[in-house]
């Protein structure tokens, strides 16, 4: 990577970090899932117990939370800095992923900026959602896989980050196995017994070791490996029993519980307060439909382009998107809008590559027009994701058509 591109990547990180970090101490009390996530970090480190958080999800999140609490203290910075950093890093990783897929800096920059400024990713980066750092681990594994160039150390690093993703949530199991198969297929590695054994040992053993290792403090309570296997089975079946009525009825996400909605209809949930006659502050989780609705057309376009050019690299965003999305569609439990976050790097890469290809065929200004329009729209929505006091009038249509819980002061 040349000096100018390194500067570009650093600027992208600073933009993403600044949008997430600004006024992060507000609110200055634990909000939403922070009320469970923060004390659970300390409880797991000290006692090997998951309470008051859900016991079904892997516990790497507790270990990382405890580390950030030790670094920044039990205050808004300690609670939220983890997601701010990983959210900003995710924008850079999206750039690197799209750069490898498209081969162009411009498409990569558009993809990275779309994630850096996306309202849903920003609001989730300002609190303690696992999808932010789990998604960053997953994307790190993918970028290292793209760039490993037969270097065993890079492949092992990719496997380690894939293990970190698996030790955060189970979303990434299908694509973990997909990447393993792609590595075996590359250059006919499966034909060589020694190479196939190394790849299998690396990309199966290392992720599983990280996943099991995240339960270190739980094992410290005296549990055996046999009990661990039973515990994982129980956690899986428990997750499948979740239904909308299993959740607190005041939960803001309950009005939209199907992944089928995410990229085809507007989803806006959250809460906010009207202050006086014409102002308000809001924390909204939204799918930003004017941009997200381009996802499926862009994926279809990219898939067709990959087939025509016989390029697995171009097909990678499509494979990774649907490899993850199929899981959300297939599960019986509710799937809320925040679970879409790990899909966004692949969706935005597909959109950016499609814009770039169309600009090449039609007019170069199409790229700059798309870039300016999309960024302007994302920044227009930014106050609604970050509890900034704003005039209500410019956002009246969005608020009136949302499912957010809105109150008057």
From TrEMBL:
The keyword Nucleus does not apply. The keyword Iron does not apply. It is a multi-pass membrane protein. Keywords: Cell membrane, Glycosyltransferase, Membrane, Transferase, Transmembrane, Transmembrane helix. Pfam families: PMT_2. Residues 57-206 form the Glycosyltransferase RgtA/B/C/D-like domain. The chain crosses the membrane at residues 79-98, 154-183, 195-218, 289-307, 314-331, 337-359, 366-385. It is found in: Cell membrane. InterPro entries: LipidA_mod_glycosyltrf_83, RgtA/B/C-like. PANTHER family: MANNOSYLTRANSFERASE YKCB-RELATED, MEMBRANE PROTEIN. This is Glycosyltransferase family 39 protein. The lineage of its organism: Bacteria, Pseudomonadati, Thermodesulfobacteriota, Desulfuromonadia, Geobacterales.
């Amino acid at each position: 990577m040349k000096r100018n591109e390194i500067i570009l990547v650093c600027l992208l990180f600073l933009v993403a970090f600044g949008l997430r970090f600004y006024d992060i101490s507000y609110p200055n009390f634990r909000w939403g899932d922070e009320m469970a996530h923060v004390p659970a970090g300390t409880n797991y480190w000290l006692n090997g117990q998951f309470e008051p958080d859900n016991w079904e999800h892997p516990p790497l999140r507790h270990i990382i939370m405890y580390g950030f609490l030790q670094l920044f203290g039990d205050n808004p910075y300690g609670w939220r800095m983890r997601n701010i950093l990983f959210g900003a890093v995710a924008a850079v990783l999206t750039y690197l992923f799209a750069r490898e897929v498209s081969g162009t800096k411009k498409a990569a920059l558009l993809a990275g900026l779309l994630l850096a400024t996306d309202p849903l990713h920003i609001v989730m980066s300002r609190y303690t959602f696992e999808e932010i750092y789990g998604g960053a681990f997953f994307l790190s594994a993918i970028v290292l896989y793209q760039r490993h160039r037969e270097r065993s150390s890079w492949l092992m690093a990719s496997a380690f980050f894939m293990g970190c993703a698996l030790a955060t949530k189970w979303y990434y199991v299908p694509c973990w196995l997909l990447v393993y198969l792609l590595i075996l297929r590359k250059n006919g590695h499966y034909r060589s017994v020694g190479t196939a054994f190394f790849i299998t040992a690396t990309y199966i053993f290392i992720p599983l070791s990280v996943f099991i290792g995240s339960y270190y403090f739980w094992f410290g309570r005296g549990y055996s490996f046999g009990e661990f296997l039973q515990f994982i089975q129980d956690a899986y079946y428990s997750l499948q029993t979740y239904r909308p009525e299993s959740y607190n009825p005041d939960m803001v996400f309950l009005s939209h519980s199907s992944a089928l909605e995410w990229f085809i209809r507007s989803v806006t949930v959250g809460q906010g307060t009207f202050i006086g006659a014409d102002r308000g502050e809001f924390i909204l989780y939204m799918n930003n439909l004017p941009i997200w609705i381009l996802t499926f057309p862009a994926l279809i376009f990219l898939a067709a382009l990959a087939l025509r050019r016989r390029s697995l690299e171009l097909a990678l965003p499509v494979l990774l998107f649907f490899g993850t999305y199929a899981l959300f569609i297939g599960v019986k439990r509710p799937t809320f809008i925040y679970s879409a976050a790990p899909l966004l790097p692949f969706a935005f890469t597909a959109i950016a590559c499609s814009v770039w290809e169309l600009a090449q065929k039609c007019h170069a200004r199409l790229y700059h027009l798309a870039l300016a329009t999309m960024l302007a729209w994302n920044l227009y929505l930014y106050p609604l994701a970050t509890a900034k006091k704003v005039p209500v009038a410019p956002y009246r249509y969005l608020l009136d058509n949302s499912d957010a819980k809105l109150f008057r002061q």
